[in-house]
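wait is this the right file?? whatever heres the structure
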């Protein structure tokens, strides 16, 4: 189906239900939160009689300024509801497993497909963000859907954060036109960017520490291991520690970069954030309990040996890419 046809099918399915549950992935980020909150705001404006809920036991200090989600709902509510899952390729990564109780499920995602768990699967892996897809849903049917500044702010936030402020691959004219459509609704970008990008003094000291302690492999893979002790030393939340990945980009000759972030529960492994320029890293992530986009993925390692193995594989991938391509920097 075309983009317009699938969004029409989604809208018609939404009309059939009085109760709607919205779901997103574990380890929430700006895109999944923006997409779920933005879609909820659009639907509440358009269909004020519907009961629409977002229930997620996880929280985010970084995104707390967007406001809380809804409280827990009984299983019976879900059994009578349409479930809409945003920004989640794999059903195992859905943060609230009540999704499986919903009468029908719609999947809206921009990742490389892992499984098809919905009665409608709208997947556009070339889209930079799920929020862009929700913005397209609105744009396709603006004659019957309503939007306001609050809904547009949620969607614009996800478009900005998941695209690296519109710098990553996949950004095209449609991306910017949809972002412009959101800005036309009166998004306060100055306040939004202040929430997203102002840093505490300790975070800046951590950034300097990363530059002092990062390492590079022979063939161009940069990496840093952010231990629990480091996070305690600089007073970092887990989310703030994850920002280390952004400090490693932009190094000449380094085609990929990795941040290993220890969590509070060692048994859950060490989270790995992978980013790259030109070369792909999603297959590398998939070999280590993860996945994602071609140049932005996540993984998990469960031992020092697996961490070192992942670094060696990243180095080998960078070496292979440099040997078979020209124009890399």
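ok assuming it is, sequence goes like this
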């Amino acid at each position: 189906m075309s983009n317009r046809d699938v969004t029409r099918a989604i809208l018609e399915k939404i009309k059939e239900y009085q109760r709607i549950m919205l779901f997103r992935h574990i380890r929430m980020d700006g895109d999944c939160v923006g997409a779920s909150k933005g879609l909820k705001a659009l639907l509440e404006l358009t269909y004020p009689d519907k009961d629409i809920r977002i229930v997620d036991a996880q929280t985010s200090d970084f995104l707390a300024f967007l406001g809380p989600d809804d409280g827990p709902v009984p299983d019976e509510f879900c059994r009578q509801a349409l479930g809409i899952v945003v920004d989640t390729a794999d059903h195992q990564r859905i943060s609230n497993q009540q999704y499986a109780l919903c009468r029908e499920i719609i999947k809206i995602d921009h990742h490389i497909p892992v499984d098809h768990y919905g009665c409608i699967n709208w997947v556009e892996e070339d889209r930079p963000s799920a929020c862009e897809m929700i913005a397209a849903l609105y744009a396709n049917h603006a004659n019957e859907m309503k939007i306001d500044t609050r809904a547009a702010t949620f969607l614009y936030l996800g478009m900005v954060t998941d695209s690296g402020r519109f710098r990553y691959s996949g950004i095209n004219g449609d991306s910017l036109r949809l972002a412009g459509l959101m800005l036309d609704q009166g998004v306060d970008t100055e306040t939004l960017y202040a929430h997203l990008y102002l840093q505490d003094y300790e975070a800046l000291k951590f950034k300097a520490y990363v530059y002092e302690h990062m390492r590079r492999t022979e063939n161009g893979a940069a990496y840093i291991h952010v231990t629990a002790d480091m996070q305690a030393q600089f007073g970092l939340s887990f989310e703030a520690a994850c920002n280390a990945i952004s400090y490693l980009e932009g190094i000449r000759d380094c085609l990929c970069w990795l941040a290993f972030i220890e969590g509070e529960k060692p048994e859950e492994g060490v989270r790995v954030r992978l980013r790259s320029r030109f070369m792909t890293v999603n297959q590398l992530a998939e070999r280590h309990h993860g996945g994602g986009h071609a140049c932005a993925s996540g993984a998990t390692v469960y031992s020092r040996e697996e961490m070192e193995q992942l670094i060696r594989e990243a180095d080998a991938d960078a070496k292979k890419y440099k040997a078979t391509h020209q124009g890399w920097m």
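The two ends are 39 Å apart (CA to CA). so i think its the right one actually
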